[in-house]
Amino acid sequence: MTVLKTSLRNFFAHKGRMALSAVAVLLSVAFVCGTLVFTDTMNTTFDKLFATTAPDVTVAPKGARNDETPQNGRPASLSAATLEQVTKADGVKSAEGAVVSSSVTVVDGDNKNMGSTNGAPTIAGNWTKNDLRSMEITSGHAPRGPTEMMVDADTADKHDLELGDELRTISVAGDFTARIVGIATFKVTNPGAAIVFFDTPTAQRELLGSTGRFTQINVTAASGVSDTALKQNVSRALDGTYKLQTQKENADENREDVGEFMNVIKYAMLGFAGIAFLVGVFLIINTFSMLVAQRTREIGLMRAIGSSRRQVNRSVLVEALLLGVVGSILGVGAGVGIAIGLMKLMSMTGMNLSTDDLTVRMTTPVAGLVLGIVVTVLAAYLPARRAGKVSPMAALRDAGTPADGRAGWVRGLVGLVLTGAGAFALYAAATADRAADGALMLGAGVVLSLIGFVVIGPLLAGGVVRVISAVLLRALGPVGRMAERNALRNPRRTGATGAALMIGLALVACLSVVGSSMVASATSELDKSVGADFIVQGNQRIVPQAEKAMQQSEGLAHVTRYRELEATLTSPDGRTDDTGVTAADPTYAQDLRRPTTAGTLADAYGKDAMSVGSDYAKKHGVHVGDTVTVAFKGGKTAKLRVAAITDDDAAFDQGARYISTATMEKYLPAGLVPPSSIMFAKAKDGQEEQAYAALKESMERYPQYQVRDQTDYKEELKDQMGQLLNMVYGLLALAIIVAVLGVVNTLALSVVERTREIGLMRAIGLSRRQLRRMIRMESVVIALFGALLGLGLGMGWGATAQRLLALEGLNVLEIPWPTIIGVFIGSAFVGLFAALIPAFRAGRMNVLNAIATE
Question: Domain limits of the chain?
Answer without folding.
Answer: 1-51+248-402, 63-240, 458-530+711-854, 541-703
